[in-house]
Write a structure and sequence with these properties.
single chain; 11-stranded mixed beta sheet
């Protein structure tokens, strides 16, 4: 099998990232984000984005490097033949906004809507259905979305991710009010549901697309998450925690039917409560 050497070189490329803010005249919303520079696989932001006239102001803060792992196409696969592209515009907020940011190669730290500023956080805990419902129930969490992160392919679909073609993991992104909910509380929720020692999976779900992780969006989140992982590691003297603790990469929302799946009824048309503070047992598949 002939392997494309340029794809291998791109696969090994390490890029630095910078933080900036976007003010979008189109919808009056503001996004504070981390930008990943130009590559073969992600769209980079310039000072002014001609598609939506968004103004980007660049600061000097540096994020962790990003390694692009899109190599599937060089091995003979198209990376896009499993299902149709997702129509993000047909899915309620915050999916269209998250997809727009991802298409520019950015990772948002904050998003503003109706005059209220929300922080963002991303977590992967196996199948994203149950983890999303757990976060929906957390007071101070205003919006959630399920999707795919930590991979190099743009606009991945469920079929592609499940086939292992993109390097993504199933994840939940959370928009929360920091005045009502701390990042530490979100970590509590994650560690309350995840077995951090399990490699590439949770429960009955196995595969790299089900690997677990905490993916921080800011320097503050990074410091808190790493300190918490160090504390958790002390509980396990003979086994290393398998959950990742890494800089978040662009988050691609999943298909509409996956969003708030268990609240809507799941596989068995039996809706589960997303009420704040609810502690009913979560049935992971509905």
């Amino acid at each position: 099998m002939k392997i494309n050497k340029s794809a291998l070189a791109a696969f090994a490329t390490v890029c630095s990232a910078r933080a900036f803010s976007i003010n979008s005249p189109r919808n009056g919303q503001k996004v504070i984000a981390t930008a990943f520079p130009k590559s073969s696989f992600l769209i980079s932001s310039s000072t002014r984005n001609n598609r939506n006239n968004s103004v980007h102001s660049i600061s000097t803060s540096t994020a962790l490097p990003m390694v692009f792992d899109k190599i599937f196409s060089s091995l003979g696969g198209s990376g896009g033949g499993y299902s149709n592209k997702i129509d993000y515009s047909a899915i309620p907020y915050p999916v269209p906004e998250l997809a727009s940011v991802a298409m520019e190669g950015n990772v948002p730290e904050e998003m503003e809507r109706n005059g209220k500023v929300y922080k963002l956080a991303t977590f992967a805990g196996g199948c994203f259905w149950g983890l999303e419902l757990a976060y929906q129930r957390v007071p101070g969490v205003e919006y959630t979305a399920v999707g795919y992160t930590q991979g190099g392919e743009q606009e991945p679909t469920y079929g592609e991710v499940c086939a292992g073609a993109t390097g993504h993991t199933e994840a939940v992104i959370v928009l929360y009010d920091p005045k009502e909910c701390s990042y530490e509380t979100l970590l509590d929720t994650f560690l309350g549901r995840v077995d951090p020692l399990t490699v590439n999976g949770q429960g009955n779900d196995r595969g790299r697309q089900y690997r677990t992780g905490v993916y921080y969006h800011s320097k503050e989140q990074e410091e808190i998450a790493k300190a918490r992982f160090e504390l958790e590691q002390k509980k396990y003297t003979t086994t290393k925690i398998a959950s990742e603790c890494l800089q978040a990469m662009p988050f691609w929302p999943a298909e509409k039917y996956h969003q708030q799946y268990l609240e809507k009824g799941g596989r068995f048309n039996s809706p589960q409560s997303a009420a704040k503070g609810c502690n009913d047992t979560i049935r992971c598949y509905g």
